[in-house]
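User: quick one, fold this
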Amino acid sequence: MRIFLSWSGDLSKSMATLLREWIPSVLQSVEPFISSESIDKGSRWGAELSSALEVSTFGIVCLTRENVASPWVTFEAGALSRGIEKGNVCPLLIDLAPADLIGPL
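Assistant:
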C-alpha cells in the first residue's frame, strides 16, 4: 500500500518528512511517498507526481495556516479523493483547529 504525503511550506514538509520515516516502522507493508524525497532529481516530476497520485489509495494532507489555501494542496487532496469509493484522504492539522477549515478540506 502506498500512502501519499501532501505538503506545502516548511512546517508542513517537516511533518511529512517525519511521517515518511515513522510510518514504515509501525506499518511495514506501507510505502510512503513524499515528492521532495521520492522523486529523483532531474526526473520528470510532473509525470512522477501524477503516477504516485494515481496508485495511492490513501493520503495524508499536512495542513498549516501557511498552506491551507495552497493550490497544490487542494489539487493533491482532490486527486487523492477521486470519489468516495476509491480514495481516502486524512487532513493532519498542524497549527489549525477543525473550525479553521473551510471548503472541501
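User: anything notable?
Assistant: The beta strands are 2-6, 31-33, 58-63, 88-93.
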